Amino acid sequence: MRLTIGLQTLGALVASLLLLGAFTPAVNLLAYWRAPARVLGPVDAIVVLGEGGITESGRLSHSSLQRITEAIDLYRQGLAPLLVVSGSPSRVARPEAEARVQIARASGIAPEAVLALDPVRTTREEAQAVRALLEPRGARRIILVTDGASMARSVGTFEKVGFTVTPSYGVPILRWGGGPGARLRLLQENLIEMLASAYYRLQGWT
Amino acid sequence: MVLEQLFLLALVAVTSVAACVLGIAGLGLRPARLWEAGRFALQLVGMSTLFFVGNLAIGLVCVLAVRGATGTFVSVYLLNDPTLGVLSAAQGVCFECWRTSGRRDSR
Q1: Prediction pTM value
Q2: Which ipTM value was assigned to this complex?
């Protein structure tokens, strides 16, 4: 009987969470609250983190393409002289970073201004690899380009290895919109990131 | 925008009312049992949640154990798949129906 009541209570909590997440702006507030804020200004380098990788068809994933486009846009605004491109390994084609470098160069960015990391698999590895690449150049201030949900953990990880980090969006904007499905995806991303952040804190990586 | 979002809720409300009418008038179901059915539905959600959390926790331990023991990188994002939610729901529904079947048989 106690188990039954416990299950009913848990079920009611989960159902309420899903309804709140889907049909109220609570998730938008959560995402806004979690997003770090800094004033966007000139830095030493723009660093675009790996995201989504290469699809089965050998092309850049949609999210990966979005991020490199955002980074190219920031570069064109003259916010940094260097663009550092990261990405995950790929079994089916060239690594994500290599594909992104080609896009950056095709967009007219000078080859010497684009630096690619060797394939990496985690944010921690990315932070270490970027430090190894930029430290000899004396570059300490960076703009970080990644998706909103993972920005807080990424900023913390890069700050831990010695960078001064500005998120690519600068100061976050509270957005109330999005349909129920989009809000549930946002909730999922933020819950996953909250777990990942807790793990990174436990490991002493942020 | 708000109206667009309320459309889904309104749609579900309308079909729920239709199902109630059909259940009572067409199938002869007792209205008093609806509350009980709602609570049982929450039980199913609760049990599915337990399976989901259990699957996630065990999956996470496995991923970290493989990383630690072999040095092979296995991504935690393997667990970020909607299929896990669907399978956990199937596990939860099946197990809860099984758990309560004896009780329902004796009624």
Answers
A1: 0.86
A2: 0.86
